[in-house]
Amino acid sequence: MKELTDKIIKFRDERKWEQFQSTKDLLIGLSIEVAELQEIFLWNKENDSVNVEEVKHELADIFIFLVYISEKYKIDLEKAVEEKIEIHKLHYPVKKSKGKNTKYNKLNDDKND
Length: 113
Hints:
Elements: H1 2-14, H2 23-41, H3 52-72, H4 77-91, H5 94-97
Helix pairs in contact: 2-3
């Protein structure tokens, strides 16, 4: 992951784009890329086919923005994801959450147990 992150940052730095990347602008850019991904699925029925190449490219754009944001705040994105998975394991133990979409703070209240 470090190699990929370094490649993304190098691409940006070679073009001197960091000057245009305030937190606000990065978040707006991220939001726009997410909206472009959503647009691919807009008005599709669940079983409709989508252009996987378009999905792939939008996911890449989203990831690049996440790298820019994490680099700005000196966050190791890979480590952050690993930490979050551990938190989710605590919040969503398999025994209580398997096959359910209940939020963790409501799992004990779930009447389907």
